[in-house]
Write a structure and sequence with these properties.
With 165 residues, the protein is α/β, with parallel strands linked by helices. It has four helices and seven strands. The longest helix is centred in the first third of the chain and has 15 residues, at 38-52.
Length: 165
């Protein structure tokens, strides 16, 4: 794997990278209702690899946290807001979001139900990503007035962390 934009990396190369002088923080999020089954096992295996490479790790079981998805209140989008770019809803997820903001690596794990990740992981992603997503003006190919569009989560994620090829 190759490092791009100094934001995403392979744990196997963690010891050999020269730009990382601080200890890497990695947060792992279990979006499964089961704490000891396949998704949790895979996350714990990835955590062991991260720890072996010298990272500081934390595992969060999202089903243990009382929270809901984004309410689209836009408080996180206001300039000079007290939220400081973190979701404004003051519930049990807020301290987790504050720690996630400081993480160098975020790993999401979820089973697939009806071709989608669990509702809990999707609600978490809304609360994590909406404050940093931007609305942009998209100019269409024709001469019409254009429209407002949003990045979808996948495109936003690629822009945030770069790509590993």
């Amino acid at each position: 794997m190759e490092i791009k934009k100094n934001r995403i990396f392979a744990f196997s190369k963690l010891e050999t990278t020269t730009f990382m002088e601080k200890k890497i923080r990695a947060m792992f999020f279990n979006g499964s209702p089961r704490k000891n089954k396949n998704t949790a096992d895979m996350l714990q295996s990835a955590m062991r690899g991260a720890e072996a490479a010298g990272a500081e790790t934390e595992l969060v079981h999202l089903y243990d946290i009382d929270f809901k998805g984004c309410k689209s209140c836009f408080a996180c989008k206001l300039k000079n807001s007290k939220c400081n770019g973190i979701c404004a809803i003051n519930d049990d997820l807020r301290p987790v979001l504050e720690r996630a903001r400081l993480a160098d690596v975020i790993v999401l794990g979820s089973p697939v139900y009806y071709s989608y990740p669990t509702g809990v992981i999707r609600a978490f992603m809304e609360r994590l990503m909406f404050p940093i997503g931007t609305y942009m003006y998209e100019k269409p190919d024709d001469e019409s007035n254009g429209h407002l569009g949003r990045h979808n989560a996948f495109e936003l994620g690629k822009r945030l962390v770069g790509r590993v090829e």
